[in-house]
Design a protein that fits this description.
The chain is of the alpha/beta class and 396 residues long. It is 39% helix and 15% strand.
Length: 396
């Protein structure tokens, strides 16, 4: 029996994870890994000490399905402290094994076969895999690279409106946005919210990069806080990006009870519960964040600026990144055939790994001129990457 025959049809279009593939190639060629989005340094001591204390205190058994009470309360208190409103930690918060699981729980838990769900492309590849698991049909709306005189990826309102049909059940909005670094503006979010209300559609928001915004003029605005949107929004986030603890896989979904029911219906059979000691560590970090996220933003903003300058010096067109820890650049001035050819050259000849973003597009032609770099690294790691990039030359 062939390997292909052993993979369920719903997963065959996806193949191997592009993140794992690029990291493997980076290791093989001893390249500086600016592909997969994980820091090469550790998170805050307070979180680690709280997790260790939880282990020593005997918190070694299954947690509650919806989360350790202390973490649910910490998430709810943080939501309120930022002015988003008062929520019930028991009814409105569901702790998951990272935001990745929260995405799958939500899509599988609320979508039925034949439902349509709208994604913006480029997208995080878990979105389309989750739709496949649910038997739902994805519809795609493009985020286009900045036009002359503009500073952010943009969407066409007409294309967005046309994506809504009588079969549309949900739209997934990732803001701040991976991989473009876009922060959706209030005007854009209100337009999306209006279409959700008009068509009776659920809004799913992936907000894992909510604390990694570098421009004061572009504040993070949760969709759930817009008028008449709380009852139709599921807000997803995690502590991994904010506290550089991506391997802990502690995330959550915030939603009204009728939507939390859908998330929990799937969660109880996906993982049931998330690692108990790590939930205590996450609660400690959320309650006492100190200045960790401030220092993280300062480091990442500096990394972004230095990497952007280096890439421009090499001849790439660098698109502004206002958030997350990614930036997109256009490699087409260098003459490579597509994103795969460019990234292969980058890894094998230059010693720097990046991501070819066609895997984040339904319309592959939109991603072929582009490349994604991650700048969530120590300053010295970025120094070495920038040093190596000086050898980059146009394809002959």
């Amino acid at each position: 029996m062939s390997r292909e025959a052993c993979i369920a049809e719903r997963f065959r279009p996806f193949g191997a994870s592009i993140f794992a593939e690029m990291t493997r190639l980076a290791n093989q060629h001893k390249a500086v890994n600016l592909s997969q989005g994980f820091p090469d340094f550790d998170g805050p001591d307070g979180a680690k000490q709280a997790a260790i204390a939880a282990i020593h205190a005997g918190h070694a058994q299954y947690a509650r399905m919806i989360g350790v009470p202390d973490l649910n309360r910490a998430i709810a208190d943080s939501w309120a402290a930022r002015g988003y409103g008062t929520i019930d930690p028991e009814a409105n918060v569901t702790v998951t094994s990272g935001c990745s699981e929260a995405i799958i729980n939500t899509l599988v838990g609320i979508l039925n076969p034949g439902d349509e769900v709208i994604f913006f492309e480029p997208y995080f590849d878990f979105y389309t895999a989750g739709a496949a698991m649910a038997g739902a049909t994805p519809k795609f709306v493009a985020l286009h690279p900045p036009r002359k005189g503009e500073s952010a990826f943009w969407l066409d309102p007409n294309e967005l409106r046309a994506a809504f049909t009588p079969r549309t059940r949900a739209i997934l909005v990732n803001t701040p946005h991976n991989p473009t670094g876009k922060v959706f503006t209030r005007e854009e979010l209100e337009m999306i919210a209006g279409l959700c209300r008009e068509h009776d559609v659920i809004a799913i928001t992936d907000e894992v990069y909510e604390h990694l915004i570098y421009e004061k003029s572009l504040p993070h605005i949760p969709m759930a806080t817009l008028p008449e949107m709380w009852d139709r929004t599921i807000t997803l986030s995690s502590m991994g990006k904010t506290f550089s603890l991506t391997g802990w896989k502690v995330g959550w979904a915030i939603a009204p009870p009728h939507l939390s029911a859908g998330v929990r219906a799937a969660h109880q059979f996906m993982t049931f519960s998330t690692a108990t000691p790590l939930q205590y560590g996450a609660a400690a970090a959320i309650r006492e964040p100190g200045d960790y996220s401030v220092r993280l933003r300062e480091l990442f903003a500096s990394n972004r600026d230095r990497l952007s300058a280096a890439l421009r010096d090499c001849g790439l067109i660098v698109h502004p990144s206002h958030s997350t820890y990614f930036l997109m650049a256009d490699h087409s001035p260098l003459g490579f055939a597509d994103d795969r050819a460019f990234v292969t050259h980058l890894i094998e000849k230059i010693g720097v790994a990046a991501i070819p973003p066609t895997g984040f597009y339904n319309r592959k032609e939109l991603g072929k001129p582009l490349v994604r770099f991650a700048f969530c690294k120590k300053a010295e790691t970025m120094d070495e990457a920038i040093k190596r990039l000086r050898a980059l030359r146009p394809a002959m």
